[in-house]
Each structure stands twice: as structure tokens, then as C-alpha cells.
Amino acid sequence: MKQRRLPAVCVAVAFLCSVGLSAQNDKKRDDAQKKEIQNIIKVVDDVSGGQTAANDMNLAWSHEDVLKAQGNKQYVPFTVTLDPSKVSGGTLAFYWRVINKSGAAAAAPAADAGKKDDKSKDKDKDKDKKKPEYAYEDISFVPVTAGQTSMRVSRSFTVAAGTYDVFIVVKEPTPDKAPKNAPPPKMSVLKQTVNVPDYWNGELNTSTVILAQRIDPLPAPLTPQQQADRPYALGTMEIVPVADTKFTKKSELSTFMLIYNPKVDANNKPDVVVEYSFCQVAAGTEHKEGEPCKAGEKFFNKTNPQALNAQTLPPQFDMAAGHQLQSGQAVSLAPFPEGQYRLEIKVTDKVSNKTLVRDVNFSVSAS
After folding, report:
1. Distance between CA atoms of 226 and 18, rounded to whole angstroms?
2. Are residues 76 and 163 in the same domain?
């Protein structure tokens, strides 16, 4: 089977972060943008309170990926799709808010030490009112090219492990002086639940297996602002994820993932083996002893195992310095018969004698 090993890159942890709305310099925003932000925040508040959400632009969640970040947190780049032909063009406001579903309610104010009049109590209540704290929130303004019929937008957030509700609002700008009887600005609202694993517990784990349309080298890491608009830029490379998992025989299946928390040997180096096996969905097929495929699948092929150890890694590789253990390859789909497949990726840490498996489901068609 034709395969191409992806280039090894020493990826550090520190770049995997998101700036967030509260950390941005508000002075750089013009008055119109500030007003738009307030309008959108009210929309999300209303939707989270139970109001029905509009979806004028067919906004839909495509997928999310999860990677290890800094400070005991995880970095979550995500992609949504929308139909820009539903709007007049120009610029769309894109806001996202991340709420921890298990977050404790705010503590009640302490009881008054002495008796106060009603006005004093009202003042104290106002003081106790604080701006709600979310796990993450941010906004950007996305240009729309005239004539587009589909559009993908990728952004990110950085959070601790847990289960989160992600609210997204995409909205046309509100004009300063709208014509009489003009329809309200087009808007779409989406709510998506995302489960974020813990990559900081010391257990063998991996990032999401990212399916890449291509991986481009970068001359230098992006600035925080550039990173906000291009969340799949990781250090000195940028991944362009595939739009979906439906491939043709003319395509390559290109995978990328990072391996977390492997143990090291006496020379302070990991010793990990990664095996890639392809199983074709075939109803009625029984599991065969020694093969990776499950019942209802038949073994198709596998690639050569990847060894990640002192002999194969770059001499300067140092996990203590924040370098990440990377695995990935590109496989031509030309020899694959049309059908549904599952790629089983088996990761074995030979030092700790632990193993885990990741699955990638995809399909292959003639065209």
C-alpha cells in the first residue's frame, strides 16, 4: 500500500492557546462593533434562557478537535459551516460563548450584619451583581465574498477538561439607520455540546486524529491575532482539515495526531509504536483471531508500523522542553474498493506496556 510519512515536527505546548474576548484590547474596536457585540450577547442570553433561535444562514456544526494546551487546559479548534448566499455580503459578526455544564452556581451574598433600609439593600444587591463568567467567549468579524454558496469558519477556545455548551451567533451588522419597514438583520444561532478530555492526568492519550486536506509549512509561528483566525496553525505548520470524511479513489487519507504522556526510558526518550490498519465494513463478516477488524468488518490492509524512539526521533527531541510526540501519514486511496471503512490506529507505549486505540471512519467512492 502506497503511504507517505508526514514530516516530523517538534511541536511545543505553549502556542496552543486562545486569546478570548476579555483579554482583547477594547480600544481597538470602533463604536459600531462594540454596539454589535452588545446586541449579540443579548441574543445568546435570550437563547440560553430558552428563547427560540433563528437560523437564517443554515449554520451547522462540522467538527471539533482537541489538543493539549498550557496551564492544565486543552485547546479546541472547531469548524462550522453556513450559507453566505442568504446574506447581502460584506462582513458577518461571529461570536462564540463556552459554558461549563457542571459549573457551580454563583455563591449567594453574605447575610447583612445589621438591619439596613431598602435603599441600602438595593445598593448592596447592585454591588453583588457581577458580570457572568464563562469558560470562554470571543468575537471576530468575518468577510464574505460575493457569490459564495458555502462557507466554513474555524475558530477555537481553551478550557479545562469537562463538558461544555458552545453557543455560536453569526449575524449581519445592524445598520445605524435602517430603512422604514426593513427586515431585521439575518442571523443564525447554534448550540453544540462538546466533551473535552483531560490530557494532564499523566495517562497515555492522544489528541483528536485530524484528517488533513494538506499540511503547509510556516516560516514562523503566527502572532496571537493570526492564530485566532487560523486555529489549525500549530507552531511552524498549518493543517487544513478536510471538509468531510467522504473521499474519492483519487484522494489521499492524510492523518495527524499528537501522543501525550508516554513514559520514557533510561535515556529519557519515549519508545512508542503506532500501527495503522484498514477495515472495510462488510455485513455478516466474523471477527478473525489476530486481526484488528471487528465483527461486520473485513481486514483490507495495513501500513508499516511507526516506531517513535531514540533511534527515529530527532536528536534534539525533548518532551521536558514541551516537544510533542507526533504521528501521521498519507495513504493513497486508489487501491481501495468503493465502500465504508474504519481506520484503526493502535498506539503502544513499550515503556509502560500500555495500549490505546483510535478509530477513523470514512468512505471511498469512484468520484
Report:
1. 11
2. yes
The domain spanning residue 344 has which CATH number?
2.60.40.10
The x, y and z cell numbers of residue 267, run together, are 535515556
Say whether both 62 and 211 belong to one domain.
Answer: no
What cell was used for 222? 503566527
Do 63 and 77 contact (CB within 8 A), yes or no?
A: no
Among residues 161, 196, 231, the one where a domain terminates is: 196
Number of domains in the chain: 2
Beta bridge partners of 156: 77
Q: Are strands 237-241 and 246-248 parallel, antiparallel or unpaired?
A: unpaired
What span, in angstroms and rounded, lies between the C-alpha atoms of 41 and 37? 6
Q: What is the pTM of this model?
A: 0.85
DSSP designation for 360: E
In the listed set 196, 211, 241, which residue is the last one of a domain according to the structure?
Answer: 196
Domain with 160, as residue range(s), is 21-196
**Spatial distance between the Cα atoms of 205 and 196, rounded to a whole number of angstroms:** 13
Residues 6+ apart with CB under 8 A from 163: 100, 101, 102, 193, 194, 195, 196
Q: Which of 177, 238, 189, 249 is nearest to 213 (CA)?
A: 238
Does residue 50 sit in the same domain as residue 181?
Answer: yes
Q: What DSSP line would sit under 218-254, residue for residue? A: -SSPPPHHHHHH-TTEETTEEEEE-S-SEEETT-EEE
**For all residues of the chain together, what is the average pLDDT?**
85
Give percent of the chain with pLDDT exceeding 90.
57
The maximal CA–CA distance of the chain, rounded, in angstroms, is 82
pLDDT digit string, tens, across residues 263-312: 998 888 999 999 999 999 998 777 777 778 998 999 999 999 999 999 99
Give the number of other CB atoms < 10 A from CB of residue 150.
11
Length of the chain: 367
**DSSP codes of every residue in 261-291:** ---B-TTS-B-EEEEEEEEEE-TTPPP-TT-
- pLDDT, tens digit (0-9, with 9 covering 90-100), for 124-150: 555 445 556 799 999 999 999 878 888
